[in-house]
Amino acid sequence: MTLTPEQLEDIQKSRANPQLTLRAVAPGMERHLYKVQPVLNHGFVRVVDYMGDDGSIVQAARVSYGAGTKHVSNDEGLIRYLMRHWHSTPFEMCEIKLHVKLPVFVARQWIRHRTANVNEYSARYSILDREFYIPEPEQLAAQSVVNNQGRGETLQGEEAERVLEMLKADAGRSYDHYEQMLSQDGQAGLARELARMNLPANIYTQWYWKVDLHNLFHFLRLRADQHAQYEIRVYADAIAEMVKDWVPAAYGAFEDYRMGGVQLSGKGVEVVRRRLAGEVVTQETSGMSKGEWREFEGVFG
Amino acid sequence: MTLTPEQLEDIQKSRANPQLTLRAVAPGMERHLYKVQPVLNHGFVRVVDYMGDDGSIVQAARVSYGAGTKHVSNDEGLIRYLMRHWHSTPFEMCEIKLHVKLPVFVARQWIRHRTANVNEYSARYSILDREFYIPEPEQLAAQSVVNNQGRGETLQGEEAERVLEMLKADAGRSYDHYEQMLSQDGQAGLARELARMNLPANIYTQWYWKVDLHNLFHFLRLRADQHAQYEIRVYADAIAEMVKDWVPAAYGAFEDYRMGGVQLSGKGVEVVRRRLAGEVVTQETSGMSKGEWREFEGVFG
Amino acid sequence: MTLTPEQLEDIQKSRANPQLTLRAVAPGMERHLYKVQPVLNHGFVRVVDYMGDDGSIVQAARVSYGAGTKHVSNDEGLIRYLMRHWHSTPFEMCEIKLHVKLPVFVARQWIRHRTANVNEYSARYSILDREFYIPEPEQLAAQSVVNNQGRGETLQGEEAERVLEMLKADAGRSYDHYEQMLSQDGQAGLARELARMNLPANIYTQWYWKVDLHNLFHFLRLRADQHAQYEIRVYADAIAEMVKDWVPAAYGAFEDYRMGGVQLSGKGVEVVRRRLAGEVVTQETSGMSKGEWREFEGVFG
Amino acid sequence: MTLTPEQLEDIQKSRANPQLTLRAVAPGMERHLYKVQPVLNHGFVRVVDYMGDDGSIVQAARVSYGAGTKHVSNDEGLIRYLMRHWHSTPFEMCEIKLHVKLPVFVARQWIRHRTANVNEYSARYSILDREFYIPEPEQLAAQSVVNNQGRGETLQGEEAERVLEMLKADAGRSYDHYEQMLSQDGQAGLARELARMNLPANIYTQWYWKVDLHNLFHFLRLRADQHAQYEIRVYADAIAEMVKDWVPAAYGAFEDYRMGGVQLSGKGVEVVRRRLAGEVVTQETSGMSKGEWREFEGVFG
After folding, report:
1. Which of A20, A132, C41, C296 is most buried per CB count within 10 Å?
2. pLDDT at site D69
3. Which residues of A touch C269 (CB under 8 A)?
């Protein structure tokens, strides 16, 4: 991930000038503001703005005239209660705005989270940079043989080399041609909105993405999950670290009840009860399908 | 509108302690923060938090590394361009959180704006205060005779007195009974979630309401409009004053292109063109219905 | 619940005239179409339209050119997989439109589900009917002593009588005054948008409500839950019966994974594991708060 | 656009079996159901399902017990009134579901319309087909010299040939390498979720897209507009033709008030008034910026 001197200067200027505000301030988040957190080979996440803190969740839940409660421990207990009982609206009272640089195929997954605000760099209006995601060798995984939608072992030797070679060469050639099509040197120059169609899905794009804390947690639950594709998971992980510093109590509750938690089906509850009562239960006697049983045993087997 | 000493103290405490932040600060909005802006006889609006300023709109539109552009005048030109061309996503990058106290029948209109976050005071959990909206005499309007959904002349004399008397007496009696049903003095006491059903629609409720600037402008366009019911319009007007101080360039563009603007139909465009060419056009020759013509003539007649 | 002869005729006319369509038809739902399912003393739910069936969920998940798969059992397996793994978008491909008559205080809870389309009967434009929700004696519950937001024992004897008396008398008097304020007999007549403020929250309103199946399941999970207020739960229960006939496979998966399921926290998973390994775990050694432990023991105790 | 015999058979089977329904049926839409409407070189749009008709808009606006009004002309007048006054919720009561095949760069614009339901063909799970959008020669446009985000003249001669040659060669080579990376012939085979990153933005994808009529009109207003990129506009145009047959009254109102209409700013209204009063107004005396004036004169100049 490389920034131009001009971009670095813009960031430093933004960080150089603290101002007074009466709003809720989250010191843990102020430390992150504007800084670039590198992700993948050319990507990044950086916080551009935020609204609220743990106290704001409590304040809204109570519809109070001041901030939070008097005691931080009370705030935390209430926040855990709200999370446990799916009272989601108080978490919507915190908001975060991120500037993200990411490969297009990651952006295409990300954008499926609809309850968010987005401004993306326009390739109709501007020219994209020559920056492509090329996986690290240890991320060059084979197709999973058990999961149609997952990765298996890491590719080895010549096969890995061939793949990297193809990805690099095709990216380079596509971008060369992109530039040649756009060029107005001795020719008219193709419209930018057309020329971009030649660029592969590992080219980087950027956007401003703004979302409330409830919907961000939903994003993190799906995208920081082990079933998420690695290339979006690293973004979710980077964001999770920031959220932990921003709203530590809410993040703690999220970790316990969502990330570390498990959704048991009615059949799953029944099997746990029977086992606790000493019964031996197998897939055949569980009422579950094979796939469901495999997942259940992954937790309690 | 009356606040308890404890509520006033909470508000003063919130305003007493400015802190340093690296985020964009809107000085015009800091002046409003937490203060109570009275609306109707017991209601209010107060800003509890905000995110962004005019520069944030430009920053997002450009997906830039720093804030806004170098020159305020450039920012304003771009903001007007965005507003004129319905590029709404950059305006979504600003967010505002309000604490509002309002009659239930106003809340029922307000909540129809779905793209917002809300935490309302719970009458299942808590007991509502004895505060009702009673119109000022000049707001006691008769049913409009031309518009099924509007007001006509102000009621006069005995009729006005009778109406005010009924509203006050019914509100008082309903609240007395609400308290008697809830009372646990010598009886079990009805559940709060049931007792509340006896309260009329002019009782006050409160909520935290958070919305982005694009959707707030949509709210203002519909609710600060002359066709909106007076009792919600006064809230919209109070909010509009705050927005003007918060994002003056965006608000200026909104006033010109939305509030002060007019949507002409294809037929309307044609009539204007014909008139500019010197032709006399009447409803009969306009192709418009009578209702549409009346509205058109209200603008250009 | 009473319909006028004219309303009944409208409903019968709608049911009298089946037409040919090429769309997916759900026979179980056709039987419900337009019929009134009574809820509470004057309310109802009736299906006005629907889109899709179980096969439509499979069709969308596969982005296929035809309908569902060849075998119903395959469809069901896939639907259960989608539900288990929170793949919610295929469920959004089914849509339902309901006409609901419900007390205003129920409508106020209901409307908080934002991802839906609503057209409500307008009390600015029209005059509401004299119909109020008055609880059955067995629903006249005392405030819960353990839960701030719940019901306890049923009220008895004179207390119950007093409550019913107050609810009926206040409703009647408020409506009498509503009519007197509106009357144009010898007076101007108050505007409808003002007169309605005198009406209590147990008056009935009506709306058309349209929602996709994923969001409907979310509604049912929260509102058919035992913690939901009885007066909205009976609506959720009535809708659930219709959904069961409409999309039996999806409803079965919903019942098993959502309604009958349990969300275990990370701490809860740990306690189950320790117990299955033979350890005795108490609240003190569980790491859970008292409230959380109580809920956990309610499932596995 | 080519369908396999199996796909054609699926479509014919869907059309072969009309069933009886009590729901509102729109004969104009039944004719379109399931049929493939070709767009661009390999893309298409086809209606997979719909809910409601013109009468459903009226039915919801009136919260009535039956369908529409007695007279089609009354329905149309009400629909025009609703459209003129931005009463959008009745239009949300109609819903449409489309199956669309489209280039990825078009899909990326399209998905920005958030209030819709989408299921896209998954390139993590499945292998994409070798089908790319290659523009027709007359669509090979140069970058506009007046508009950063638009097209100018059509490319000519050798430049056009070079561009087409590059687009075709790069697409072919990228796809060859995609297949080689995926191949499990003598090697492990790269994971599908990784291999897809090599594919350019003109490859075709497919999705099921479901949206209500109000949001569809919003989509059409922006994407059937002359400022929209040609490659998405042709999809919008194809959909508009279907909507016209589905809800002719609503589409007529949309055409008059939205597509054929003009949004005048407050300054624009003033200039029209002054001109109608005989005054000569120029940009300098209009108060408008140059850009705004140019657009204004484009309508009334």
Report:
1. A132
2. 62
3. 260-262, 299
Lowest mean pLDDT among D64-68, D184-188, D262-266: D64-68
**Tokens 């058919």 belong to which residue?**
C224
As a whole-number percent, the residues of chain C with pLDDT over 90 amount to 88
* pLDDT value at C191 more than 80: yes
pLDDT in tens, B97-136: 999 999 999 999 999 999 999 999 999 999 999 999 999 9
Q: How many CB atoms lie within 10 A of CB D138?
A: 9
H/E stretch holding B153: strand B151-154
DSSP annotation of B155:
P
- What are φ and ψ of residue A78, in 5° steps? -65, -40
Q: What distance in Å separates the CA atoms of residue D259 and residue D250, rounded to the nearest whole number?
A: 12
pLDDT tens track for C156-181 = 999 999 999 999 999 999 999 999 99
User: Which chains share 3+ C-beta pairs under 8 angstroms with B?
Assistant: A, C, D
The Cα–Cα gap between D204 and C42 comes to 54
Nearest chain A residue to B57, by CA: A119
- Report which residue type is found at A277: A
Determine contact, residues D197/D203, Cβ cutoff 8 Å. no
- Subunit contact C141:B197, Cβ cutoff 8 A: no
What is the pLDDT, as a whole number, of residue D68? 64
Which pTM was predicted? 0.96
Q: What are phi and psi of A82, to 5 degrees?
A: -60, -45
**Cβ B64–A121 below 8 Å, yes or no?**
no
Question: pLDDT below 70 — which residues of chain B?
Answer: 1, 68-72
Q: Which chain D residues have a beta carbon less than 8 Å from that of B276? A: 272, 275-276, 300
Our CA-based measurement puts residue B39 at a distance from the nearest CA of chain D, in whole angstroms, of 27
B163 touching A (Cβ < 8 Å): no
**Annotation marks residue A46 as catalytic:** no
Between residues 35 and 64 of chain D, which touch chain C (CB distance below 8 Å)? 48-52, 56, 59-61, 63-64
Is C145 in a helix, a strand, or coil? coil
Judge whether B94 and B213 are in contact, CB under 8 Å: yes
Q: Do A89 and B56 touch (CB under 8 A)?
A: no
CA angle D232-D238-D239, nearest 5°? 90
> How is B157-201 classified by DSSP, letter by letter?
HHHHHHHHHHHHHHHHHHHHHHHHHH--SSS--B-HHHHGGGSBT
Six token digits for residue A281: 């239960």
- Identify each DSSP E strand in chain A by its residue range: 19-21, 37-39, 43-51, 95-103, 117-120, 141-143, 151-154, 204-212, 262-264
Q: Give the model confidence (pLDDT) of D280-301 as tens digits.
A: 999 999 999 999 999 999 998 8
Look-up of token digits 């005729």: C9
191-250 of D, contacting A, C-beta below 8 A: 191-194, 196-202, 229
Tell me the average pLDDT across A144-167: 93
Q: Which residue has the tokens 């409160």?
A: B206
Taking only residues 166 to 195 of chain A, the set having a beta carbon closer than 8 angstroms to any beta carbon of chain C reads: none
ipTM of the complex, rounded to two decimals: 0.95
Average pLDDT over residues C271-289: 95
Nearest to D64 by CA among A277, A156, B235, C48: C48
